[in-house]
Amino acid sequence: MTSPGRTRAAGRPTLEQVAAEAGVSRGTVSRVVNGSLEVSTNTLHAVREAIEKLGYVPNQAARNLVTKRTDTVLLVVSEAEERVFGEPFFAGLVRGLGEELARTNLQLSLMLAGSDRQRERVERFARDGRVDGAVLISLHGADPLPGKLVAADIPVVLTGRPLSSESGMPFVDADNLSGAEAATDHLFRIGCRRIATITGPQDMAAGVDRLAGYRAALEFRRGGTGLVAHGDFGRASGERAMRELLERDDTIDGVFAASDLMAAGAMRVLREHGRRVPDDVAVVGFDDSDVARNTDPAMTSVSQPVRRMGNELARLLVTRIEQPDSVPGPVILPTGLVHRDSA
């Protein structure tokens, strides 16, 4: 039984019937059905309305045999499970990816690669021909996984600048260096002079670049090399680093932390030590996540367009899948400082 308002053609509707209903060519319908982004919005809507009206259902098995596609892309996160599901960055990125992939037939499959065993499992899964491409997130150091996937002719895009400039792989990133420099300079402008930083991991470009931005601001202000303690972007590491910094120098009056979670951890330790934020120590984070909006006081933070990063990752990957010989350049998105009460 068809739903009200739907007129189903006799028998199984064909691409030709959908094309006639939408007033477009068979090839255009095929592009829409195959998830191509190279179709205008108006045409996309017309074809989808015709598909709905006629009740057209693609023969998926036959289509996959012809296109040699699986309609699955792999999202690989090189972190432990508690990090993936406990940090706002990953949720925002997945949301952005999902939004853009919803315009195609591509489905997203998540795999973790935080250990050697997990990386081997990811590689086997991908090499078995189960995916059309892969998005890699949170790579550390000289991770061999991207190179192995590329060697297996799997299109790959990276989240974050790879540490090796020779990788040649397309990536999407925020302007971490400029964001960190702006955050540190803001602390100078509000009167802080003994400014410390809590870094992200130094085997990740985001951690390296945010530390470089902090140091660039100090150099511009002739503030020396500053006080540096290392973290891993997580809240607990921010607490440990803040305790370390206070033990080394109790005259600190400003802190730039390379993530909101680390900044929140630092604020907790400052309270434990009787330091008022921002009266005694001003604090700036990085991410502009929900964490920043819910601290007490609310946290000044560098915003990065995580959702848009996910959108751009999906676009890059679809381009790599549909145009295997294309070499899209990197996408670097701007950051901005969001002013709140902590600084």
Automatic annotation (TrEMBL):
The record's annotation in SMART domains points to: HTH_LACI
Q: Where is the HTH lacI-type domain?
A: 13-67
Among Pfam families, the record links this protein to: LacI, Peripla_BP_3
Q: Which UniProt keywords apply?
A: DNA-binding, Transcription, Transcription regulation
Annotated HTH cro/C1-type domain residues: 14-57
Ranges in coiled-coil conformation: none
The molecule here is called: LacI family transcriptional regulator
Q: Which organism is it from?
A: Actinopolyspora mortivallis
Sample GO molecular function, one term: DNA-binding transcription factor activity
Which Gene3D superfamilies did the record assign? 3.40.50.2300, lambda repressor-like DNA-binding domains
